[in-house]
Write a structure and sequence with these properties.
- By secondary structure, this protein is of the alpha/beta class.
- The protein is 30% helix and 13% strand.
- Helix 7 links the parallel strand 7 and strand 8 (202-206).
- Helix 2 (59-67) crosses helix 4 and helix 4 (95-110) packs parallel to helix 5 (132-145).
Length: 427
C-alpha cells in the first residue's frame, strides 16, 4: 500500500489540471441530481477556474422548473389511461422532447459561462426510461448538441455509451469520462471505448464513502478509496494511457485533496460540502437537515429501485412512504419491459382496515421523491458539515457560498476548515 508523505502544510493551489492547452484548478464539483448540482453551482465552480457539473437526471422535469416548459404534464396526459393500473405497458418518453430539454438546459448554462473553468454533465445509465438505448443516446447527443464541455458517464458500466454518441460531430471535441468503483469496471469500459477508437479523457474513482448511489454491494465497508485509486492509477501508468485519474467520495478537506494530488491524481471530485451552499438546488429546509445530521443518522439502504445501494439520511421523507407510482409524469427508472422495482414493492404492500396503502418498506418511488427533494442523499461525512459554519441564535446554521467552500479546499492546510465571516444577528 503506497501512501503519500506528510502533506499537511501543502495546499491544492500548488497544483493544476492540464488538458491540452487548457489549465484548471483541480477541483471538480460532482453532479448531484435531481437539480442539486444546479446551474448556479456549476457556473460558480467554472467561474472560479474549476470544473462544475450539471446532472441530467430527470431533465424534462428540471426544464419545466426553470424554462417554463410542460414536458412532464404532457407526458402525464398522454398516458393518463394507465394511472390507476400497475401495468405501465406503453408508457414512454417523447424523444424529441427529451432531446430539446437536454439541449436547452445545457445551452442555458453554457451561454452563461464565465471564468476559465469548465462545465460537465453527469449522465446516468441507470435512468432506463422505458427505452434504455434510445433515451440514453438522446440525452448524450442533447448534451453535446447543447455545447457541454464534458460528459461524465455514471451509474452503470456504459458498455455502449461511446458508440451511442460516436456519430455526433462533437464526440472527439468534448471531454468524456466515466465513474467507476473498481479497476475491473474501468477495464470493461476501456474495451468498449477501444471499439470506437476513442479512449476516455478521465476516470473518476468513486469510493465507498460517496453520497447517493454506490458502485458496491453490501460489502462496501470492506473497500477503501485510496486502495482502489492506487490500483487504477497504477494501471493507467503501466499501460501508458493518457487518462486523468480523479478520486471521489470522502474528500472533505483541502489536505485530503492534496494527499491524492501528491499520489498523481489530476484533480479531486467533491460534492457533500457544496450541498449547504447558496448555489445548491436543495431547499433551505433540507440544507438545515444536512447541517443537523449526526453520524448515526447516515445509512446505506437498498430502498432505491435502481438496485444500487444508496447513502442517505434516515429521516428522509422517502423512507416508509406510500406514494402511488408516478410513472405517467415521470417513469425515469422504468425498464424496457415497462417494469420498476417500486411497482412490485407497491403491489406487494397491503392496505389497512380502511383500504389505505400501508407504508412501502422495501423501495421508494425515486422519481417522485427526488422531484420533491425528499431523498436526503449525502456523503458519509455529512455529519461534519456543522463544523464548517456558524450556528445562528435561532438554532439554524449559516449557509455558505460556493466560493467560500471552493477556496477553503484551495487554500486550507493541515485538515483545517476556515469558517465564513459570521453574519450579523438579525441579518
Amino acid at each position: 500500500m503506497r501512501y503519500p508523505s506528510d502533506t499537511s502544510m501543502s495546499i491544492v493551489d500548488n497544483y493544476r489540471l492540464r488538458w491540452g492547452k487548457s489549465e484548471y484548478i483541480p477541483i471538480m464539483v460532482g453532479g448531484m441530481g435531481v437539480d442539486i448540482s444546479a446551474s448556479a453551482l456549476a457556473l460558480e465552480a467554472c467561474r472560479l477556474g474549476g470544473i462544475g457539473h450539471l446532472s441530467d437526471a430527470m431533465g424534462p422535469f428540471v426544464s419545466d422548473r426553470y424554462l417554463n416548459t410542460k414536458y412532464t404534464k404532457l407526458k402525464s396526459m398522454r398516458h393518463a389511461d394507465t394511472r390507476n393500473s400497475l401495468d405501465k405497458t406503453g408508457v414512454h418518453f417523447d424523444l424529441e422532447h427529451l432531446h430539446t430539454a437536454q439541449v436547452d438546459l445545457v445551452g442555458r448554462t453554457m451561454n452563461a459561462k464565465t471564468g476559465d473553468g469548465a462545465i460537465f454533465i453527469n449522465v446516468m445509465e441507470k435512468l432506463t426510461m422505458a427505452a434504455p438505448s434510445d433515451t440514453l443516446r438522446t440525452r448524450l447527443h442533447g448534451a453535446l448538441d447543447g455545447g457541454i464541455d464534458g460528459i461524465t458517464l455514471s451509474a452503470g458500466l456504459h458498455n455502449h455509451s461511446m458508440k451511442l454518441m460516436s456519430d455526433n460531430p462533437r464526440f472527439r471535441d468534448a471531454r468524456i469520462g466515466i465513474i467507476v468503483s473498481s479497476l475491473r469496471a474501468f477495464k470493461i469500459f476501456l474495451r468498449s471505448a477501444a471499439r470506437v477508437d476513442r479512449l476516455p479523457d478521465y476516470v473518476i474513482v468513486e469510493g465507498p464513502l460517496a453520497g447517493g448511489h454506490l458502485g458496491f454491494g453490501d460489502d462496501w465497508r470492506e473497500y477503501d478509496l485510496k486502495d482502489i485509486f492506487i490500483e487504477v492509477i497504477d494501471y493507467v501508468k503501466q499501460e501508458e494511457l493518457d487518462i486523468v485519474v480523479i478520486p471521489a467520495g470522502g474528500v472533505f478537506t483541502g489536505t485530503d485533496a492534496v494527499e491524492y494530488l501528491e499520489m498523481g491524481a489530476g484533480a479531486v471530485q467533491v460534492a457533500t460540502r457544496f450541498t449547504i451552499t447558496d448555489e445548491c438546488g436543495l431547499p433551505a429546509k433540507a440544507k438545515q437537515v444536512y447541517f443537523n445530521a449526526v453520524e448515526e443518522d447516515v445509512e446505506v439502504s437498498m430502498i432505491s429501485p435502481t438496485g444500487y445501494p444508496i447513502r442517505l439520511l434516515k429521516e428522509s421523507p422517502c423512507n416508509n412512504a406510500n406514494i402511488k407510482p408516478q410513472c405517467e409524469p415521470f417513469g425515469y427508472i422504468l425498464g424496457k419491459d415497462q417494469k420498476c422495482q417500486y411497482l412490485t414493492a407497491y403491489e406487494n404492500t397491503p392496505v389497512d382496515e380502511k383500504g389505505k396503502k400501508l407504508p412501502v418498506k422495501d423501495k421508494m418511488c425515486i422519481c417522485y421523491h427526488f422531484s420533491k427533494h425528499n431523498c436526503y442523499t449525502c456523503g458519509h461525512y455529512v455529519y461534519r458539515l456543522k463544523d464548517t459554519s456558524h450556528q445562528l441564535p435561532d438554532g439554524s446554521y449559516q449557509l455558505l457560498t460556493a466560493e467560500h467552500v471552493f477556496n477553503d479546499y484551495l487554500y486550507s492546510k493541515d485538515h483545517q476548515i476556515l469558517l465564513p465571516e459570521k453574519v450579523a444577528a438579525g441579518f
